[in-house]
Structure prediction request, 1002 residues.
Amino acid sequence: MGIPFLKCVTALTIFLVLSLHLVNVHGLAVMSVDFGSEWMKVAIVSPGVPMEIALNKESKRKTPSAIAFRNGERTFGEDALTVGVRFPSNCYIYFLDLLGKKIDNPIVDLYKKRFPYYNIVPDSKRNTVLFKHGESDDYFSPEELVAMMLEKAREFAQDSAGQAINEAVISIPGYFGQAERTAMLKAAEIAGIKVLQLINSYTAAALNYGIFRTKSFNETSPMYMMFYDMGAYATQVSVVSYQLIKSKDRIAPELHPHLAVLGVGYERNLGGLEIQLRLRDYLAAKFNNLKLTPNDVTKNARSMAKLFKEAGRLKNVLSANTEHFAQIEGLIDEKDMRIKVTREELEELCKDLFDKVVLPAQRALKASGLTIELIEQVMLSGAGTRVPKVQDRLVKDLKSNQPLGRSLNTDEASALGAAYKAADLSNGFKVKAFITKDATLFPIQVTFDKELIDESKPAKQVKRILFGHMNPYPQRKIITFNKHQQDFDFTVGYAELSHLDENEIKCLGSLSLSNIKLNGVRDAYSKYHSQEGVDTKGIKAHFAMDDSGLLVLQNVELLIEKTVTADTEEESTLSKIGNTISNLFKGPEEVLKEEKPVHEAPEEDPIPQASNNTTNNTDTSDQTNSTEQVKLNDTIPISDSKKDLKVVTVKETIDVNHEYLFVLPAQDDDLQSSINKISELKEIDLAKSRKETSLNNLETAIIETRERLEQSDYSSSATDIEIRSILDKCSEISNWLEDDGFGAEAEILDTKFDDLKKIVLPVWERTFEHAERPSRLDALNNALNSSYSFLEKIKNTSLDDTPFTQVEIDTLDKLISEITSWKDKQVEEQEKLPRSVDPVLTIQTIAMKHSSIEREMRYLMSKFTSWKPKKKEDPKVKAPTSQTDNEKLNTPEEQDSDSTVKTNAQDDVEKSTAHEPSVEDNAESESPLKTDKTKPTELPVVEPTKTVPYPNSRENMLCDYENGSALRIPPSNSQLVMSDCSVAVSLNVNGSQFHVFIEHIT
Prediction:
């Protein structure tokens, strides 16, 4: 029984290995969305198509993050910005940073100051931000607006990929905390998109840089790079390392490129938006100073919206030019504005902003523990880095030895890097592994009260760091509560944020993330209190920082070690094989995500802080002891003398009541309400699109119908009554469109289109018949002529020399005659009819006849190509085997006949009428051949080799020899016998006779 069992297990193992490597390359496409404050970029990966940017409806590679509502219609991108110039409060822009914010957050106050024309009100349930739309009762949350943009992004991606897309990787700012990341995931859920991962924008840009430069990485020394990303809203700088690391695969370890984020620095309000706003206010002040109107332009929302748009254009122009004019027609009170602005004025206006350019880079270097001398290059990313002053200050203040890197696409780097990650995470693609490890920007700690021994004393609060500043993730951590044996609770929140300024800490919102209450602790302990050989290892809470940077409490359990009597039998074969397979499939990702314990320290100990060394090691409390390595069903021998005892680990799950303290997105009924709202808006958009398509089809049909009836080909195919009826119908529909048609629904427009189609379709079909009939008849005639020629050749050949039967020949002859007779009759009848009458000789009937003759010819030709003629027995000539035999063959009579060898096959060729002789070569093989009757001539004398290679054509056969010379044998002066697929040559060279036979000649 043992051998069959092992065979079954081996087969199962092989099956599992193969299953893990099967990849469905024809799976659904995936997309990435680089969701920026000003612009949104979408990239796709689909079967057969590498990473590429998906174009929007205007065939542009990026779309403004703007949504407008006007007269019940919703518009996106450039169309929305056009609405926003006339109706600023109807177009929502720069709403990304409002995700996960309460109404009293400093960012919300700043947003109100920058865009005063929006009506922002608090959510009555969550105290978050809501946009009240005009005078209506419509409200939109930032999550709903983001969901609308994500839905539009999927539409662009699906149009480019040509298939449905439901999975995405979304690029977000790295300074997003737990609240913002949770809100982004909820927005994607509202849009019906499955998020494979949230990726920080600087990490995505670094990944895009690294995937094309893996050959420059090595195992020994990491390569350090700095990515400076100045976008529309904020500036983010990251210091990353690239290195090759060996996988943990025991069978076939491989080297994989590894990207690790070592340091991050950012400035939330340093970007193109702040420059644009200052330029807008500058132009407004300049215009007011001109005193062209008594009204203040800053008090007019529409005028400020026009100035904001012009300031954006002017900012871009001044990046490449030293001066330019800002021009707006009818800015206010029908007064035009034309103001000259120089680059020096803009730089002076934003002098304090340019002083902050180097600060995020310095913070990133400090967090990484590196110096600028160790940085390979500072790579620019983001549209804001195109400003000349930004580049000048970076060169001046950073003092890097290398010039600034400009090889990245500043607009698309994050989108393409996220697309690579999406392909890696999707089940439909297999890409080269590129391991990425991001860094925790905001440290997270656990706060709890010590177990009370003396109730008269106040409880002492203890804090433990879970994830320190710049700790890598994804990663798991375990915190152990050793002394708590009663139900208790603890709080998870942000730890010490000394690396941030006071205003930035306020922007994070609530510093407490969640309150966790543990129930059933006492009952769990009481289960094992009276048992012997039991050692409690405390309450263990398992936390994880996942790939998206979200903190997750996985489970809480009581760990018990019991000493029990061990079984005398050895571990079963099945258990051994199961453990072996488990270890075999343990991949590098599991090693990278290995849980690390965080131990509860004594009361006297100070609170440990996370270290910030260059290798991103966690703090000292993260070290693992032997107890933490014990897993379920593991066994530990007590001693050599007590081999019948073993230690078993038992885990009791503890109930958890998890209360979130930060701003949560909509839940339950509110979430469903948001989903329904988005669905209704989508239905309205689809109805609008369908109506526009129907209206466009109807208008186009009317115009084309009138134009065609003016052409002789179409007008001659219709009677006067039909022409009058069609023109009257076109006029009727045109008048209806002018009166009521433009407000009609799509169904009514389609009905009008069908009515017009019914009366014009017979005329169009006749015109098409008359236009196509000559070419179809020519094709039929060619098929008949070819078939007739083929039939004549068969009739002139004996049936014994063909694969065809008399019935097949008669059938072909009959078919040709019938089709020819039918064609002549139909053509004669058709020529008698006017063009305005339905034809008797239609394209369809011609095609049917053509198909029948082609079908018969295909059958006969297929039979002919697979046919092999019967072989004929001929006298065989024995090949010379010795020098004596050669002398006998080389008689004086043969020499007198121009040294030409004339074989029995040649005699048969001259007498035969079927041209199918056989020639025997040195190997005594036979083959039917056709004959060339050309009289042979004398051949040159050369030294032959033992074998002769095949010739490359009938007309020019070259045979290579050992001395480097070649023998040319044209058909006119050699004994050459040929058929369609073979050649035979008889040679007499230097007194030796050679028979060369070549098959399958081309």
